[in-house]
Amino acid sequence: MPDQTAKELRKYEKSLPISLLRAREATTRYFKPYIDRHDLTMPQWRVLRALAEEEGLDARTLSERCVILPPSLTRIFRSLTQRGLISQVDCSDARRHRVTLTDTGRALFVEVLEESEPDYQRLAAAFGPERLESLLNLLSELRDTVEDLNAEDAQDAAEPRRKLAAAR
């Protein structure tokens, strides 16, 4: 017989991380053919997508915005640079690596966007444009809430160390 704690857990299907992962996977599968058609990976596409909105982003910003670890981002930069899709931008701080889309990169971005837009509109219509907008807003709020809780937890964990250091 399962213990009491297992009984109190919410059902697997109602697990927030699992629900988010399943929604991500389904959405990715829906749009992935457009990325594959242009011999891109999803992380490479996220970098191109982020650079299309803002000129000359640094590696740290792209890492955070695209949810890509720095070592992977370095490989992505190398690949996209070799394909002529991005180029390095001069930066006053030599320690920072800033990149921007090239004309070829921007043209590829526009091409993928134009190809995928009808399916995006189809998804929005099927789900409901207002519901999709609401979902996007709720997901941003959820991310902000979890980040705030993580920051509070980190601060709480650091407090005993601060007290110990102050007592010395």
From TrEMBL:
Domain HTH marR-type: 13-144
SMART domains (alphabetical): HTH_MARR
Pfam name, any one: MarR_2
TM region(s), chain numbering: none
Gene3D superfamilies given in the database record: Winged helix-like DNA-binding domain superfamily/Winged helix DNA-binding domain
Name of the protein described by the UniProt record: Homoprotocatechuate degradation operon regulator HpaR
Organism: Roseinatronobacter domitianus
Lineage: Bacteria, Pseudomonadati, Pseudomonadota, Alphaproteobacteria, Rhodobacterales
Gene name for this UniProt entry: hpaR
